[in-house]
Amino acid sequence: MLPGPKAKRLLKLDKRYISPSCARPYPAVIERGRGCYVWDVDGNRFLDFVAGIAVVATGHCHPEIVKVIREQSKRLIHISGTDFYYEVQVALAEKLAEIVPGSPNRKVFFTNSGTEAIECAMKLARFKRRRPYFISFKNSFHGRTYGSLSLTASKSIQRQGFGPFLPGVFHAPYGYCYRCSFNLSYPECDYACLRFLEEEILKKSAPAEDVAAIFVEPIQGEGGYIVPPPGYFQVLKKICERYDILLVCDEIQSGMGRTGRMFGIEHWSVIPDIVCVAKGIASGLPLGATIARSSMMDWPPGSHASTFGGNPIACACGLKTIELLEGGLIENAKVQGDYLLGLLKELQDRYEVIGDVRGKGLMVGVELVLDRIKKTPTTSKRDGVVYECFQRGLLCLGAGKTTVRFSPPLTVGKKEIDKAVAIFEEALKKVFRIS
Ligand code: PLP
Predict the structure, then answer these.
(1) Which UniProt keywords apply (predicted)?
(2) Quick one: 273 exposed, middle or buried, by C-beta within 10 A (0-12, 13-18, 19+)?
(3) How do the pLDDT tens digits run along the chain, 435 residues long?
(4) What is the b/e burial string over 74-111, where b = at least 16 CB atoms within 10 angstroms of the residue's CB?
(5) Could you tell me the pTM of the whole model?
(6) Which residue minimizes the CA distance to atom 13 of ligand 1?
(7) Which residues line ligand 1 (CB under 6 A)?
(8) What CA–CA distance (Å, rounded) separates 370 from 358?
(9) Which of 57, 63, 105, 189 has the most CB atoms around its CB within 10 Å?
(10) Nearest C-alpha to atom 12 of ligand 1 is from which residue?
(11) Distance of CA 248 to the CA centre of its chain
């Protein structure tokens, strides 16, 4: 039974000294990691299908990443791109500008995190368009600083007590077909959610001429690993073009190879105006980036900067991470992701409590329900399944109200996937009392 004795001691200290605002789903006190596995302080091994919330794309402590950290830290640890130039930052920007949809002619602003990348995009969009409003989507998660939190509409606890938010943010229904806001089905719906955005929001409450940008996750992460239908982003892009609104893709969770393409939006072949990345970009080092058309990123010196953003060690890891992604990990995410999705769909055929299985690459969600017809959500049982997985040696997380998400390192193999799915099935049977 977990936690073990050493973990218990640390949990006590954590309770004494760490802000309780983080919602840890189970008492995992991790000491070290390697590839797809982590070990806790009591020596228990776990198969990690969280990857530091979709961050350690190359697996824990990839030897080549460790080598890069060692070498770069001997040369230069910090200098600040706010005031100085350094090669590794330019090299990573050049690479990102080359691989981002819509390349070339892209420029990059480096940050330390996802939320800062979103803040940068919000400021840039307003600066360029000189329009006050933003649109984002229900269930979206863009971060927890005031600008990004104003866009976020995933869970009320994330906003409760923190208002008022940035004025001029409007939330539209997302392409969440399993729980369509209009009770319609794709393709007969003819994108009713996007028609609502145009007809009801842009024409009635947020005048299109006053909207600077629409922020969207190509696949919603925290909101429940929700994949919009085919054609969705092409329609959204057309709306943006009609009113000269900027399309900002938040690729913070879906980017950097996770979905089997370098960027999630590539599945829809749409070119955004601004792309935000973070999480998987540097294999665990804190780094984010906002990438925009060069003609757009022409704000004057002093208008935006960050002391730590684009840290040399993080940038060096970013370059190595992209090399490893292009060297086979993106392809592996696709192959193993299809395999994982297939196994989970087989489980769905057998267990009524699995309402939906969806995802792309290694961004896979399983939505649990109490009743398949009514699609009754069950947060408590979902949390129970996540907890029972932990007790059996598998780390996974919830997403949205009633979904279990799987986001393993992109180095994962069939053997680990078989094991993870077997543990998930056991946990499911235990929590839902299925014999
Ligand atoms: N955007 C998306 C899609 C995310 O998933 C997250 C984090 O989960 C963020 C933004 C915020 O990133 P960070 O926690 O690095 O600020």
Answers:
(1) Aminotransferase, Pyridoxal phosphate, Transferase
(2) buried
(3) 899 999 999 999 999 999 999 999 999 999 999 999 999 999 999 999 999 999 999 999 999 999 999 999 999 999 999 999 999 999 999 999 999 999 899 999 999 999 999 999 999 999 999 999 999 999 999 999 999 999 999 999 999 999 999 999 999 999 999 999 999 999 999 999 999 999 999 999 999 999 999 999 999 999 999 999 999 999 999 999 999 999 999 999 999 999 999 999 999 999 999 999 999 999 999 999 999 999 999 999 999 999 999 999 999 999 999 999 999 999 999 999 999 999 999 999 999 999 999 999 999 999 999 999 999 999 999 999 999 999 999 999 999 999 999 999 999 999 999 999 999 999 999 999 998
(4) eeeeeeebeeeebebbeebbebbbeebbbeeebbbbbb
(5) 0.98
(6) 114
(7) 53, 113-115, 118, 141-143, 217, 221-222, 250, 252-253, 278
(8) 18
(9) 57
(10) 114
(11) 14
CA distance 22 to 356: 28
Q: Beta-strand (E) ranges in 144-259?
A: 169-172, 211-216, 246-250
Tokens (6 digits) for 235: 């329609």
The Å distance, Cα 287 to ligand 1 centre, comes to 12
CATH 3.30.230.80 correct for 5-61+330-431: no
In words, the CATH class of domain 64-325 is alpha beta
* Phi, psi torsion values for 393, nearest 5 degrees: 100, 20
Locus of tokens 């794309």: 57
Sheet holding 211-216, edge to edge: 106-111, 288-293, 274-277, 246-250, 211-216, 133-137, 169-172
C-alpha to C-alpha distance for 258 and 80, rounded to whole angstroms: 29
Each domain of the chain, given as residue ranges in start order, spans: 5-61+330-431, 64-325
How would DSSP label each residue in 358-424? EEETTEEEEEEBS-TTTT-B-HHHHHHHHHHHHHTTEE-EEETTTEEEE---TT--HHHHHHHHHHH
